[in-house]
Amino acid sequence: MRSRRVLECAAIQWYRSGQVSHYQVGLMLGLDYWQTEQFLADHKVPLNYTLADLEADRATLDKILGSP
C-alpha cells in the first residue's frame, strides 16, 4: 500500500517538525495511544517533549500531590 506508506512518512515528518501532535499522528493513522507510541518508536522518532514540558508536568504533579 503505497498511499499508506506516504501517509506514514508524512505523519513522521510533521510530528518531527512539531506540526502535529502524538494524538494527531494516531488519528491520521487510525492508531490508539500505545500503537502510536510503538509506531514512532519503530521508526526511531524521538518524542516531542521539551524541558518546558517536563517543568509543566512537574508543576502539575506538585499541585495534585502537594509539594514535598
Proportion of helical residues: over 70%
Mean pLDDT: 93
- List SSEs in N-to-C order: HHHH
Detail the poorly predicted runs. none
- The helix count comes to 4
Strand content: under 5%
Overall spatial form: elongated
Radius of gyration: 15 Å
User: What kind of sheet is the major sheet?
Assistant: none
The end-to-end span amounts to 53 Å
| DSSP strand tally | 0
Structural class: mainly alpha
Q: How does this structure look, described?
A:
This protein has helices spanning 2-16, 22-29, 33-42, 51-65. With 68 residues, the protein is an all-alpha fold. Helix 1 (2-16) packs antiparallel against helix 2 (22-29) and helix 2 crosses helix 3 (33-42).
Concise summary:
The protein has 68 residues and is an all-alpha fold. It has four helices and no strands. It has helices spanning 2-16, 22-29, 33-42, 51-65.
List the helices and strands and how they pair.
Layout: H1 2-16, H2 22-29, H3 33-42, H4 51-65
